[in-house]
Amino acid sequence: MYRAPVDEIAFTLKDVAGLRRALDEGRLGDLSVDLVDAILAEAGRFATEEVAPLGTVGDRNGPVLKDGAVTTTPGWKDLYRRWAEGGWNSLTGPEEFGGQGLPTMLSVATLEMWNSAAMAFALCPTLTMGAVEALDKHATDALKRTYLPKLVSGEWTGTMNLTEPQAGSDLNALRARAERAADGTYRIFGQKIFITYGEQDFSDNIVHLVLARLPDAPAGTRGISLFLVPKLLVDADGTPGRRNDVFCASLEHKLGIHGSPTCTMIFGDGFVAGEEKGAVGWLVGEENRGLACMFTMMNNARLAIGLEGVGIAEAAFQKALAFANERRQGKASGWSGDGMAPIVHHPDVQRMLLTMQAHTRIARSISFCCAHALDMARVSEGGEKIHWQERANLLTPVAKAYSTDIGSEVASLGIQVHGGMGFVEETGAAALYRDARIASIYEGTNGIQAIDLVTRKLPQSDGAHVHGYIAELAATVAAFGKSGIDGAAAAAARLDQSIEDLTAATRHLQSMLAAGETDRALAGATPYLRLFALAAGGACLARAALADPSPQRVALCRFFAENMAGDTVSLRGQVVGGADGLLAAGRHLVAG
Amino acid sequence: MYRAPVDEIAFTLKDVAGLRRALDEGRLGDLSVDLVDAILAEAGRFATEEVAPLGTVGDRNGPVLKDGAVTTTPGWKDLYRRWAEGGWNSLTGPEEFGGQGLPTMLSVATLEMWNSAAMAFALCPTLTMGAVEALDKHATDALKRTYLPKLVSGEWTGTMNLTEPQAGSDLNALRARAERAADGTYRIFGQKIFITYGEQDFSDNIVHLVLARLPDAPAGTRGISLFLVPKLLVDADGTPGRRNDVFCASLEHKLGIHGSPTCTMIFGDGFVAGEEKGAVGWLVGEENRGLACMFTMMNNARLAIGLEGVGIAEAAFQKALAFANERRQGKASGWSGDGMAPIVHHPDVQRMLLTMQAHTRIARSISFCCAHALDMARVSEGGEKIHWQERANLLTPVAKAYSTDIGSEVASLGIQVHGGMGFVEETGAAALYRDARIASIYEGTNGIQAIDLVTRKLPQSDGAHVHGYIAELAATVAAFGKSGIDGAAAAAARLDQSIEDLTAATRHLQSMLAAGETDRALAGATPYLRLFALAAGGACLARAALADPSPQRVALCRFFAENMAGDTVSLRGQVVGGADGLLAAGRHLVAG
């Protein structure tokens, strides 16, 4: 059973991702190390004792749709209420509307725990958080006053309604339409698919954020507006009243995250008898500027999805490590006890577990560093603010894509450590594997994250920001190499090679973009993102070993340097030398 | 929907794996190219038209156990009968007992198709095939006469009963017991788990091959005997009669292969009222030599499991390619048509599809080469026989582990190409991902395959056999490099680097083994197996491009060389330089 790794999370926040320095420098108001520790401890307790036991229930007893209403997994409605009452939903919410205004670092740290304990459950507040942010930034004061207090407290939840059957990655193709009503509101019509928690019984009301086109909107993404469409229309006194014309038509049958309802939502199909047609909506931000508003929400959602990868990886690692220490098969030279050896003594099993552990810690570190950058951007001004915002921009696609890719890889290794027991559902290793798989797809596929990294993030500050980041990685690795820690010099030399690979690949892609060779840059995007994560990851493990030079941390860093960091050589080769062959062979895939 | 790639399979058999030369040299009796083509065409038709449409039905409507009897997926019983009547079960069976005595190459080629169409269905005859082989090699003439004709025709099916709760990878721990009866038969007692098709309604009778210990047997694997235990005892005239005391107690709830019943089997628990206790069994081979008999069966089963990986990968590639040519999202420079581009035009999607295609073709090639070696060993004598047997031994763990690993990887990429549609079960991409996962586990986990490759196969012929194989790979790549085919020289140079990496890693492991540094060799086993497959794979793609220098084949070989073969550098680094760090870090994983 999952136990929240509170100490490791606290260590990573403070000593790898920069929270300790920010606190020491007084950058985060009156937040103290003691308060951080207290919050993490209580979150760890709640995740371990209250959420985790109900996680598997959701996998086996998913939500049921009947007459337009969704009944969620037994116990989850009550769990959600206790969770929200515990203040976990309001952690980072704006103080003006009842939130605690704490840093994003605490939000991602606790989010990791909820995701480890029950990713399908954690999805609901993840979306609410995005809605809070979008409304706080872009909605009118009247909308904020009506909706934000309830969304911040978690009494109501939020959803994102983007995808339509023909419009997934490409929102240009969006068809949902909005009409202006005489009273300044709008009427929304159309179908949205894959809407997570589009309908549920956790809360009295659901606040849908919906992308749609006005009749006179220009074509493409510059003609999309964002609307707030509540499930229940809210009376003047703030009470949810009559039913709006938005309904859940069906639930998807999915590979994983069975506990979360994935809804097809129908807007304005006249389900509400006797009412004017159309779902009543309110404009958020300006007309035709909805995509910009949605991107606010999506960027932070991307980091949040990265934490799904971290959470699954941590849960899978814990499960596999416990099994490997219990299960006995065969002989092993490291085992002198009676009978068969616990399989943790077999070198091949150790390779799997160490690979899982290294990936998990790196993904956590990169994600927390990204959150730190967001926090620093919020409390900075001028050039410093730009610096931290660019840092967050740079790390967001890496945190999302790498963490979710390794979420699946680590969960797969977790199955493998379990052998045949991993393939039967009762151990729970398979459920983690099924749950993890979606995170590489939604909130922008990992291919799109890689394209975002290459085409939008490498050019930041005329290409200088990324090289500044790489120089920081190199400095960390150099400090580790000179630390005098046993074995550090050799490990640092290998990690430094990865940083050199990252530098060369970065320069190559920047020169391709500068030359207008977009396709050749795009061809290398996915291997580049992985290379970026591994080079950064080596520096993260080195920083951890510098802060805490325990034999375990130093050994893990060395293992990574000798057994995982070498991949950057071939990844660099793909980025720098693989594009032409890819594009030439790719033509033969086109039908006809 | 899957369409059997009959032409590609025929090409790989003949021009990559060596069938054409063997036929030309008359090594395979009166088998002709025309007969091979006719068999493949008819198998392709049956797999495409008859098996594939019922594949998804099995995923959604798995077998049901009631009162000890299993009812399989609707339509599968009839499908199995038609399949067996078509002669597909008897393809390679011994002619003496009604088999067609065709080469293993045809068996693996058709097995790939059944696995693509419905892996859970194909599992049943895969196990029967193993039982036929074990009985043909090790059983008494009386047992052969009674059981082989029915097993060869497919009227009865076979199972393998090895695993017990405490004995998975390590058969030393086996506890099932056998007692000698006065009439020369035995009584078997015990519980076996994970027994594929241990109970079903396809056939009148089921022939269980069961490992158990005699009361006076030595401890460990030298005290295990193999028994034949029929579900129904066979009368003197060969008719199945009264029920034997072996029953299915429960079915597993699994991640995938939902169509196949995975049974817990209870032997000798007195279910048969009024009869003497114990399941009646007959000894196969000698007492206490059961493991050797089982290994005959297991080696070929390992190759067969490799074909599951190939079959899943092919099905996933076809599905993803079709989707990528239909689904439209975004703009792409290669697309000049109206509206959004089919996603096959996006470089990142091309990378995924080409990676899938290259892995699939390599896995097929290595598996077919392994089958070719088995066929040549059967028709050879003396040193040549030893050569081919060693070749088959060498390639078996690679065919099993690499093919099944890439089965999961390719199925995962297949989901990713589908985006959100890949995560919902209706597209079938997710089912392939779920089915594929078991193949890396059963019939010896892939970690065990790697250990087998390193510790048992590298030492063959005092270490010379593997270097002879590597020299053949190098010769193929050299011929490709000198072929004058456009781009071949550059690609060959990169493939040659992989072969150099393989040579270095092989020599390192051999020297570790010679020095008694077993743990350091074992630590590198898994990366070594992958390195082996990639180096061999490059030569396979080069051989294919030499035999058919079409732009598509040459381009795929170049893509592989530039974008996939480079991994051998870091894999070599792990094998040669990763062990000490792994073993040092591994110690920290041990609890307490």
From TrEMBL, chains A, B:
EC number: 1.3.8.-
Domain of life, source organism: Bacteria
Signal peptide location: none
Essential cofactor(s): FAD
Alphabetized GO MF terms: oxidoreductase activity
Domain Acyl-CoA dehydrogenase/oxidase N-terminal residue range list: 38-155
Ranges of residues in domain Acyl-CoA oxidase/dehydrogenase middle: 160-268
Record keywords, A-Z: FAD, Flavoprotein, Oxidoreductase
Xref: Pfam families: Acyl-CoA_dh_1, Acyl-CoA_dh_C, Acyl-CoA_dh_M, Acyl-CoA_dh_N
Top-tier EC class: oxidoreductase
Residue ranges constituting the Acyl-CoA dehydrogenase/oxidase C-terminal domain according to the UniProt record: 288-453
Alphabetized SUPFAM superfamilies for the sequence: Acyl-CoA dehydrogenase C-terminal domain-like, Acyl-CoA dehydrogenase NM domain-like
Limits of the Acetyl-CoA dehydrogenase-like C-terminal domain: 470-584
KW Zinc (keyword) present: no
Protein family membership: Belongs to the acyl-CoA dehydrogenase family.
Protein name: Acyl-CoA dehydrogenase
